[in-house]
Structure of Hexosyltransferase:
Amino acid sequence: MHPTMSFCLHPRCILLAAVTFLCIWAIFCPSEIRKELSCTPLMPAPAAPVPPLSLPHLLIPNIGVCTGLGSPLFLLILVSSAPDHQEQRDAIRASWGALQEIQGYLVRTLFMLGEPSNSPLENIKEVLKQEAQVKGDIVQAAFMDSYRNLTLKTLSGLAWAAQYCPDVHYVLKTDDDVYINVPGLVAELKQRGNDLKKDWQQRYLDRDGTAARSPNLPVPYLYLGHIHRRVYPSRSEYSRHWVSEVQWPSARGPFPPYGSGTGYVLSAPVLRLILRAAGGVPLIPVEDVFIGVIAKRVGVIPTHSIRIAGASRYPIDRCCFGRILLTSHHIEPWEMKDIWELVKSSSGNRPLCSWLQEALGMLRCWVIHHWHF
């Protein structure tokens, strides 16, 4: 064997190469090593100009939600709901959706709807108008509410947020059968934001260690969720996830990484980037995939969180729902209220988790999930 080749395969050489790689990674993406080893660029490259996004007009605009709050809204939760899902909406209003402030951080929850299709309830439109007037938390756009129009619904909600809540820091898109651990999510976003801001400030230090003049970055670039990777389009026309060859040619391979539509967070800068670029891409009827496609187009890399459950259903557990998980899917309305009462009753003298449960964290939640299901 050649002497040089022998030297390069020496264990010390391999160790040195590994340490060098980790150092480079730490320099360019330190905060995300501690998270899920996802290196999201602090300032993605600007996307090329595209035609403006054309969306249906709003039937129930509800434009005053974010006015007169006194301080910027930290988290806006957009819940995708069907017109006839009032029971689900009421369950959310009576549970986690009632939270409007977490340790000084303002939170609001809104329901995004389309128009009812052929429903057996002839007066559903009138009932919906009354619900919107009484509750004040509904935004409705002029399109037929269906699963295949979920991309239109989501884009309408995101556009509403950008226009009528221009100072919002983060937007969570979720569904009306998902339980959201709002205090946990606020704490998670606050921590991630602080970490990324520190990284940014460290890049703009003068040689003497004082802070240099740098671009103001009040909110980091963040696309956070349960990230799916290397998912190929379904070609079955009987599947609600069907994507045609025209919409996504097979030559493109799998979809780009994307956050499960059951719950993903977009920070304000990412929200604006996606809305600016969405008009230049043909709509894909699978909403979460479409957001991932646009994110890749504008240079935003999604960040995976193991605490966001995606499509998985977890058995009701005080520690998992109150402390560990940020979202959980497939929750019935009556379960939503039960979980809320369980978590709320545990916030006093009785801790949400024992020290052992806290130490085991997601591992324990995974075990009881697989044990029950």
Summary: The chain has 13 helices and eleven strands. Residues 37-373 form a domain with the Spore Coat Polysaccharide Biosynthesis Protein SpsA; Chain A fold (CATH 3.90.550.50). The two ends are 55 Å apart (CA to CA). The CA atoms of residues 224 and 303 lie 5 Å apart.
